[in-house]
Amino acid sequence: MACKRIVFLSLFLPLLIIQHLCILSTSIPLNACQDSLQQTLPYCNASLPFVERVADLVKRLTVEEKLNLTNSRHEPILRLSIPGYDFGHECLHGSVVLSNYLPESVAKRGATVFPQPLGLAASYDTDLLLEIGRAISDESRGISNANGQTKEGYPSFLDCWSPNINIYRDPRWGRGSETYGEDPTLTSNLLATYIDGIQNGYGDIQSSKFVKVISVLKHFVAYSLEEANGEMRFYFDAKVTQQDLEETYLAAFKHAITVAKAKGVMCSYNQVNGVPMCANTKLLENTLRDDWSFNGSVVSDCGAVGNMYDPMYKFSSIPKAAAASMTAGTDMNCGNAYTDGLQDALKAKLLDEATIDKAISRSLLGRFEVGQFDSPDDNPYTKITMDVVGSKKHLMLARKAAAESVVLLKNLNNALPFVSPGSDSKTRKLKYKTVAVIGPNANDDLVLLGNYHGLPAYGTVSTPLTAFQKRMGKENILYAAGVNVVTGDGAWGFNPAIDICNKADVAVMFIGSSSKGSFNGVNNLDTVEKESMDRKSIDMPGLQIDLVKAILKKTNISIIVVLIDGGPIDIEELVENDRVIGIANAFYPGQMGGEGIVDVLMGDVAVAGKLPTTMYYKNYTDEIEATDMNMRTYPGRTYKFIQVPVLFPFGYGLSYTKFQYTNLSILRRNDASPALLDVSFTVSNIGNMQSDVIVLLFLSFQDNEKKVGFTTYPKRELKYFTKLKKVAPKDNENENSDNDVRLIHFELKESDFEMINSDGKRIFMKGKWKLEINHDSVLQQEINV
Fold first, then answer.
1. In 10 A of CB 21, how many CB atoms?
2. 147-to-101, 144, 370, 599, 781 alpha-carbon distances in Å
3. What is the pLDDT of residue 92?
4. 531 with 516: CB under 8 angstroms?
5. Which is more confidently placed, 427 or 649?
6. Is-contact 508 435, C-beta < 8 A?
7. Mean of pLDDT values over 533-555
8. To the nearest whole percent, how much of the chain has pLDDT over 90?
9. For residue 704, what pLDDT band results from cuts at 50, 70 and 90?
10. Looking at residue 103, what is its pLDDT?
């Protein structure tokens, strides 16, 4: 039905009033400024800076229209032909495509699901994170350009609520797999390239004007607990020292804002030292905006503002909670609290209209930056099509990422890889002909995908079982799940697993944890960790260890264990048992996880990953409460403050080959460079297989006399890391071949020798320091600064 439009130009209001007179709602373009009358106004003038255009638009809005722009789903402004806009898009490790308002062909396509971030962190590969960030935002843009909406008239997919850069403080945390591990330096460097990939660039195309997709950092700040000891994330008060806040909890966020230039931040559910984070003026305004010069928008975690009224009970009404949040710097609310409370808050003078103007100006700026108020023809990112979504290139990247995420923890007598290494692929021999593939995670699509994912591209997932069958032939692969992750059928599940072990040369067991949760309306009870669910211990869940013991007792087979998990699990029994000849951690490897894992097990890819977390002994969690946020409380948190023995340290990871580190040199700089010291050394492959290798540089302060403002010093701190690609071994059959010797060079700056004191201040620490290379200190030297 056609709709007649009558236009009234008012001489008395600073508004362009366009009224649509029709019974049915009119169709609004998915981009604003397409109307010829709009195009005469400053906010549609593409030659003006975005900030000026935003200011012009805001002054034309009524109070009601302004209030409709305070939620994370902006309502349409019909009289200005401005569409709605949904900021709420998840893309933790892939663009989440669920039951959105999409063309059927788009919805069925899904999107590429990469490994969970904890696995990506094990790669220590900043270049890989750049590629993955680009791939995710390319797919998000492609979906958006194909009319990707969450509701008719509400374009979406251009704000990516990712990355999660909280520090993996406690191994029981149910969302640890969403993070980049326990170290601020590792997290900061990986997220920097990931955010660059999300926000900028498509192929060779760069835009100085537009942002491809906005990256929204989660969860600001000191958030790392779902539920424990009667506490819940919705009201938990994180008691954090100023030292820990600056040293651990804020560090990655600061890097993401000041270096990576992320344009969005999500404030978290919890309180920090008695102040709800979404109403925390000190952190949202003083730290984020004043100290770090953040000029993007802040959105609440979903329901966080309303939670401050109930169940946090920090405010006596929704209007008071809403006013406090917006005044403190929370520009948008995901939830209903602003919708339900800001009108009454205005009437009660709990905040003024200028505060609302400031908030909506920040969120509208993001819409201008992604191009919603410019002609699509002027924005290079509108050229991205659905062809990129689930493309062969992206699926191969997901497979590569899954392989790079694998960490080898144990390898007795070179049990791995399956194919003996050698320069001549024709003579490489397969060590095992018949393989028993066992375990609840060997053929479970959802477990491999982790959490915060949508439909995987084309609805397909490569599991370890299907990858093994494809590689070695179905006739050579025997399979039994044995048990579920959480529950099992005891002997009924054990017997088939035992039976196939008696027919195989080796057993490969895929065990660990599960973060399946709810997907497509199905609540998967076989889940031990997820958003809203922390683990109670780091024990191997269910009957999985019992299954291993039964196989060891009833057969003579050797076992290789591949952990599919979201964080540290106690595997001490497996480490100590000599019939468990190999252990690898593959985390939650994404939709191409099976292929990536089997690439590593077969030896097509040389394993090179290193742990992004500490792996603790079982009793570690008996010694400290999950609610204790203090990093230095006995037995200490993370490798920096641990005071007890651990099963595997942060940065641990074996290789299929052997590397030699030599020629350490530390020279003092006397020029105008900001560097204090030049550190260099060489790395060469003295094994028999080409491989990547990750190199870590740690510093630790060695002065025994405690300085003012310090009670303890970090045991060591990761300062720099690099990943060398495809380091080749010497060709012993060719006398004229040269060794592939790589020269590593790090410049140590004055800031590298600073530490955070009890007041949260950075202090340059003169005295004796120790420099160590890698977790095992393969090279080390004391230095005085």
1. 9
2. 9, 5, 15, 37, 59
3. 97
4. no
5. 649
6. yes
7. 96
8. 86
9. confident
10. 78
CA distance to 93, 272, 284, 337, 606, per residue, from 233 (Å) = 23, 12, 19, 18, 40
Q: Is 47 strand, coil or helix? A: coil
Q: Which amino acid is at 573?
A: E
Euclidean distance between the first and final Cα of the chain, in Å?
78
pLDDT at 524: 75
Residue 502 identity: N
pLDDT band at 23 (very low <50, low <70, confident <90, very high): very low
Distance CA(42)–CA(44), nearest Å, equals 5
Task: Name the token pair of 76.
Answer: 């349409």
CA 596 to mean position of chain CA atoms: 19
Q: Tens digits of per-residue pLDDT, 553-567?
A: 999 999 999 999 999
Tell me the angle at which helices 337-347 and 318-328 cross, rounded to the nearest 10 degrees.
90
Q: Kindly indicate the confidence band of residue 709, based on its pLDDT and cuts at 50, 70 and 90.
A: confident
Query: Is residue 180 within 8 Å of 162, Cβ to Cβ?
Result: no
Mean pLDDT of 514-531: 81
- Among 743, 746, 592, CA closest to 669: 746
pLDDT at position 150: 85
From residue 50, alpha-carbon distances to 46, 209, 374, 375 in Å are: 8, 9, 10, 14
Query: 701: pLDDT confidence band, cut at 50, 70 and 90?
Result: very high
pLDDT exceeds 90 at position 424:
no
Tokens of 500: 């196939």
Pairing of strands 264-267, 214-220: parallel
Query: Which DSSP symbol is given to 273?
Result: T
Beta strands in 484-643 (DSSP E): 506-512, 518-519, 522-523, 559-564, 580-585
**Sequence-separated (6 or more) residues with CB below 8 Å from residue 320:** 309, 341, 345, 350
CA distance 224 to 249: 10
222-259 CB burial, b ≥16 within 10 A, e <16 = bbbbbebeebbbbbbbbebbebbbbbbbbbbbbbbbee
Report the 10 Å Cβ neighbour count for 85.
Answer: 27
Q: Is the pLDDT of residue 250 over 80?
A: yes
With a cut of 50, say whether residue 84 has pLDDT above it.
yes
Residue 317 identity: S
The confidence score (pLDDT) of residue 5 equals: 33
Q: Is the dihedral of CA 145, 150, 154, 158 positive or negative?
A: negative
Question: 91 Cβ partners below 8 Å, 6+ apart?
Answer: 136, 137, 140, 160, 161, 162, 198, 213
Amino acid symbol at 539: D
Q: What DSSP string describes 180-238?
A: --S-HHHHHHHHHHHHHHHHS-BTTB--SS--SSEEEEEEETT---SEETTEETTT-EE
pLDDT band at 706 (very low <50, low <70, confident <90, very high): confident
Nearest to residue 600, comparing CAs of 500, 688, 474, 471? Answer: 471
What the block records as the tokens of 424 is 């001549």
For range 219-244, the mean pLDDT: 97
Helix (H, G, I), strand (E, B) or coil at 9: strand
Q: What angle do CA 305, 306, 311 make, to 5 degrees?
A: 115
- Cis status, amide bond into 221, omega within 30 of 0: yes
List 6's β-bridge partners, or say none. 19
Q: What is the pLDDT of residue 6?
A: 30
Catalytic residue list: 301
CA-nearest of 256, 264, 295 to 89 is 264
Helices (H), 310-444: 318-328, 337-347, 353-369, 392-404
